[in-house]
Design a protein that fits this description.
By secondary structure, the protein is α/β, with parallel strands linked by helices. It is built from seven helices and 19 strands. The longest helix has 17 residues. The structure holds flavin-adenine dinucleotide (FAD).
Length: about 400
């Protein structure tokens, strides 16, 4: 029997995989997504759940990333108002803070400029009278508090919603189904995958997108011929969930150990606290918050919110895919890297790193790279305006 044929085969049902599926289906292509576990089983359920430009990336001059993310934030607020919500962020300044009021003022000014200077991108400095009404934030030696707006989401719901939209546009999902191997045969790949009930099957795809997150290297090892790849590091980030909810919004504080940013965020009825940066060498399926990461986060939380004596209810950790470097994880670029099998005739693209916030833009970039290998089609929808 002939194998099923698709224009685009996507490996991984995280935010990038479903984003590419939606974008490809919107451009009129036939698409199959393979997810071995469940949608958002990997990093896409273990993020900080922020839809943001990334204020701190301004300090490392990553302006294009911030601008794209801010644009995508606005698009998501429009097309997914049920899942992506604007939230106030508060940045307190103490004598020990790495960034003083002047630098923060300048950074927030630039952030607001990159966001387009609308009403919602304004920032302000709180009146000291309001310091006592900030969910118990430490006020002794508090010099200033800045307030600005960014957004929050539920990363699992967002991933599921994008996949639903992709399906409505004609994309297919096989889940749980594990990708096993891809072999280039002329102008297509022959892909082998395994479905628990149906056993091993094959299909033919004009192009393959490796969106396997922390497993991209394992997937690339099973693609033939071998693609020259970038050296990457996996860096884990832990979060804790605490019972006492932050009611005012997200607090953006500095770790008291190393000045790294730590977010204290309302999360449904609880508080989400994160994150860390710890080099990871094991099996990505086994990542979990380490005791020292929990201590690190709790030390910072209790320092800034001394009256909060609540103990964590649970914890989780996710893996960032970052370019290998001797620099600290915090200082490394967060731009998405697209690794292709061939410059002239690209048929396999691997997505390394990236942001939940920018998934839609990343999906467009992936399809633009693969355009020479895809048939001409009629676009049936625009993902920038399609409600999800
Ligand atoms: C700690 C942390 C906090 C973050 N916070 C934010 C944030 O607040 N805002 C933001 O914008 N970004 C954030 N990010 C970045 C963002 O979460 C990630 O870039 C994004 O979720 C990665 O999605 P992905 O689809 O590439 O990978 P994943 O979500 O990991 O998806 C990969 C999928 O591939 C599947 N898979 C693997 N192997 C196979 C196989 N052989 N066959 C079939 N399927 C397979 C896995 O099961 C998994 O579902 C954060 C990242 C981390 C680590």
């Amino acid at each position: 029997m002939d194998s099923e044929r698709y224009d685009v085969l996507v490996i991984g049902g995280g935010i990038h995989g479903v984003g590419v599926a939606q974008a490809a289906a919107a451009r009129g292509h036939s698409v199959l997504v393979l997810e071995r576990d469940r949608l958002a089983a990997g990093t896409s359920s273990r993020s900080s759940k922020l839809v943001h430009g990334g204020l701190r990336y301004l300090a490392t001059w990553q302006f294009p990333l911030v601008r794209t993310s801010l644009r995508e934030r606005e698009i998501l607020l429009r097309i997914a108002p049920r899942i992506v919500k604007r939230v106030p962020f508060f940045i307190p300044v103490y004598p020990t803070s790495r960034y003083g009021s002047l630098r923060l003022h300048a950074g927030l000014g630039l952030y607001s400029l990159l966001a387009g200077r609308g009403e919602q991108s304004r920032f302000s400095r709180l009146d000291p009278d309001e310091f006592g009404d900030l969910d118990g934030l430490r006020t002794d030696s508090l010099r200033a508090v800045f307030r600005y707006l960014d957004a929050q989401t539920d990363d699992i719901e967002l991933t599921q919603a994008v996949m639903r939209s992709a399906k409505q546009l004609g994309a297919e999902l096989r889940c749980p189904t594990r990708f096993l191997e891809a072999r280039r045969e002329g102008d297509h790949y022959r892909v082998t995958f395994e479905d628990g009930d149906r056993g091993t099957e094959q299909c033919i795809a004009r192009v393959v997108v490796n969106a396997a997150g922390p497993w991209i290297t394992q997937v690339l090892d099973r693609c033939h011929p071998v693609t020259k790849t970038h050296a990457i590091d996996l860096v884990q980030g832990a979060h804790l969930i605490l019972p006492q909810r932050m009611n005012r919004g997200v607090f953006y504080v500095e770790s008291i150990d190393d000045h790294r940013p730590v977010f204290v965020m309302p999360w449904y009825e609880n508080t989400l606290l994160g994150t860390t940066e710890t080099k990871f060498d094991g099996d990505p399926s086994q990542v979990s918050a380490l005791p020292e990461e929990c201590d690190y986060l709790l030390r910072t939380y209790r320092h800034y919110f001394p009256d909060h004596v609540d103990e964590p209810i649970s914890s989780f950790a996710g893996l960032r895919v970052l370019p290998r470097s001797t620099k600290s994880a915090n200082a490394r670029p967060r731009e998405t890297i697209l690794i292709r099998d061939s410059k002239r005739d690209p048929r396999l693209v691997t997505i390394a790193g990236g942001k939940l916030t920018a998934y839609r833009a990343t999906a467009q970039d992936v399809l633009d790279v693969l355009r020479p290998s895809l048939p001409d089609t009629t676009t049936i929808a625009d993902t920038a305006t399609l409600a999800i």
